[in-house]
Amino acid sequence: MRQSLQADFLAVEQLLERLEHGQLDIVVLGRVSVGKSSLLNALLGRDAFSTSPLHGETVVTERQAWKTVSDGLVHLCDTPGLDEIGGEGREALAHRAAAMADVVLFVVEGDLTRNEWTALQAAAGHARPVLLVLNKADRYTGAECRRLLQHLRSRTSGLLPPEHVLAASAAPAPRTVVEVLADGSERERQEHRSPDVQALVERLWAVIEGQGQALVALNAGLFASRLSDQVAERITVLRRDMARRVTDNYALAKGVAVALNPVPAADLAAAAALDAGLIAHLGRIYGLPVTRRESWRLLAVIITQLGALMGSLWTVGLFSSALKLGSGGLSTALTATAQGGVGYASTWILGRVAEDYFRNGSSWGPGGPKRAVKAVLDTVDTQALLARARTDVQAVLERRGR
Length: 402
Ligand SMILES: Nc1nc2c(ncn2[C@@H]2O[C@H](COP(=O)(O)OP(=O)(O)OP(=O)(O)O)[C@@H](O)[C@H]2O)c(=O)[nH]1
Ligand SMILES: [Mg+2]
What we know:
The chain is an alpha/beta fold. The chain folds into 2 domains: about 170 residues, Rossmann fold (3-Layer(aba) Sandwich), CATH 3.40.50; about 170 residues, no CATH class. Helices cover about 60% and strands about 10% of the residues. The protein has a 6-stranded mixed sheet, sandwiched between helices. It has a two-stranded antiparallel sheet with strand order 7-8. Helix 5 links the parallel strand 5 and strand 6.
């Protein structure tokens, strides 16, 4: 028991590490047997993920280190085929994978089926870059392949940029060649063909570098006043996107920490430390760094307002312990997820409030903190947020084999 807990804490630490060092996860998604695992192996240059002609070879999400980019590690994550699970679960998996991912590789082997289309839309709705990979290109002639890509680009126009739709051959079938021997007789031979993932690799690097540039642009944003309005506007958008992403990540880390941590007192400290960390992180993103002390003070102000506006369930949820103590009847996994969901949602709301505060130039505005917190709560669909929170927390717990 103790050992399994240690492993769980490690997982949370890894999540936090990821936040600090900007690790990047590339996650594959697609129907069974479209060649997801093969594609990752082709990128890695070794057979790290198990592949098979039989459907349903990959049953759990797996992760392998790929490359190091400016001190951060890029990981490749394999997932089970989307059709291994029924309709709703399929969409949920697509959502979860996309929520965990920094870049999604959506793999297909032909035109999009209806289910693929739904899952692709779900994945593309997460403000992460999604690449649509037409795998097994070796099964098409050059002209067929170009036509199919064209078709996929037009079907996904508005959803994906056209350059994010590309072809690959992760594990091309051997080619049969006929040899004419010295005596004039003919012999058939199977010729091995190497994977072709060049276009994908190039596009992936462009996407990864693009994200790096967003960071650079953010730092440059400190000088925004000297830039044209248009650039300043772009920087505002980048800042907001980054703030939201960071908030999502902290919320997930908090949700998982709350769900895994069986000690109420430790919950309280860990949860508050994470929230204070998020505030400090958001301050850095907005070029308005706060001291540790200041971030704790802001946290106290926001929690007080949240408590007053949302009632005790949420304040309790913020520190989560009481729910845990009173959960005798329910199964632990279920309650852990429910508590984690509340932990996630509270951090998420806190992040939105802090984001507004920093966007406002470290100010609550005329109505003070109460008005600022209320403005955020008015725009949040709490039921939907809680549902999403539970799904995302559950995804991490499942990945940890619970
Ligand atoms: N012709 C051809 N076959 C491929 C290609 N990529 C993968 N395959 C074959 O497709 C089959 C399925 O490949 P996997 O990589 O296991 O597919 P998967 O999507 O991971 O499948 P699940 O884990 O079962 O969901 C294997 O027999 C592969 O050899 C390709 O580019 N061309
Ligand atoms: Mg697989």
